[in-house]
Design brief:
36% helix, nine-stranded mixed sheet, 11 strands, binds zinc ion, two-stranded antiparallel sheet, alpha/beta, globular, 258 residues, 8 helices
Amino acid sequence: MATAIVARKGRRKSVSISLIEPENWATPQRILVVLAHPDDPEFFCGATIARWIAAGHEVRYCLLTCGDKGTKDRSLVSEQLCDIRQEEQRNAARILGVEQVRFLCYPDGYLVADMGLRKDITRVIRQEKPDILVTCDPTTLFYNNQSINHPDHRAAGQAALDSVFPAARDHLYFVELWRDENLEPHIVREVWVCGTLEPSVVLDVTEQWETKIRSLYEHKSQIGDPEKLTERMRNRRTADSTPEVPRYEEKFRRIVLG
Ligand SMILES: [Zn+2]
């Protein structure tokens, strides 16, 4: 256990961050990643995904948009970009060992955590029956006073959490899913929230860091110069790293529901 000290409103609060070893889990887990855009899984938690898969767990993606506005190339229209980014995402997922990627194809940039989105994610949860759902933190608005979290990330996290509880769990929520589509209610046991300012668990992903970088290379339309990306990613080593022995981590807020 590592302990971080967080200052809050003049008081100091001790926050425990547990080191997680997914190789030691008793049974293989079904893990569903629900995020807004192609490239979000790899940027947010790609090394963890690689480690989970190497440890025998199964990971699937559900991306809510196909990232159809993520370009400065004026020769492209959204339909073309949508196709390009879906292909890039499938290739990136394959590098990590993820075989199934689905897209709900909501319009990029306009994601709203409304009842329609909640129902669509609830449907996916009931179909996939994950033990663990991964999404991003809807309460993260700013990063380090340097950037604003994308509104789609916040909406995706909010809608995914609202789908886990209570909509996926109880049959009378979106009753037509149960009545007309034969989708039984499902209890997600854990939620892992990435992109959070309040992590509770950390994984050492040093061994998977280069795999994460290779998966990011597949997002060719997004990353610009691969060498600069590589340098930026390698610089994300932990404070206790040395140039000779770098170490890398990914952190989550882990919510254990049952
Ligand atoms: Zn994104």
